[in-house]
Amino acid sequence: MRSKPPSTVAEYLAALPPERRAEIETVRAEINRRLPAGYEEGFGYGMIGWFVPHSRFPAGYHCDPSKPLGLAALASQKGYMSLHLMSIYGSAPLRQWFEAEWKKRGKKLDMGKACVRFQSVDDLALDVIGDAIARVPVDRYLEQYAAALAAAAKGRAQRSAARQSGAKAARKRKPSR
Length: 177
Known about the structure:
The protein has six helices and five strands, in the order H-H-E-E-E-E-H-H-E-H-H. By secondary structure, it is an alpha+beta fold. The chain has a single domain, classed as Aspartate Aminotransferase, domain 1. The protein has a five-stranded antiparallel sheet with strand order 1-2-3-4-5. A hairpin with a 2-residue loop joins strand 1 and strand 2. The protein is globular and about 70 Å long. The N and C termini lie far apart (about 70 Å). About 20% of the residues are buried. The mean pLDDT is about 90.
């Protein structure tokens, strides 16, 4: 019989093997120590997460408004652990700062758009992670999020207009029979 998946941070941590639990708890402690006021820790999408609660931002996450807007998430995957830093994904200056500071620590950064992958806490520049979290107060994050949504909407509108313009031009070129 399969056990039910974890639904809280405590259940998630308890389900991890001891060595992974220690690694995840170290990163979690640094994030919680540096987390600006207004964010909350919770569990969602199968990960420990830090988010802007609905009481502060009722609109929630645009892809699923029933979920709060996430700032960061931490997970133990099959072959690695991951830390998702959404504020870095949404801010080119913050990402540039993050990468430069990480490099100064002499650590190899294994990162996608927002996901830092690691095998051990020793792979991480924990102080840089803490600083990245601390640099984004809730109000700034909400401004950044609104700007990103507006830019995405503008891009969609421009692509739509270009497609319509192209279709109109193609109809004009099409010979009549």
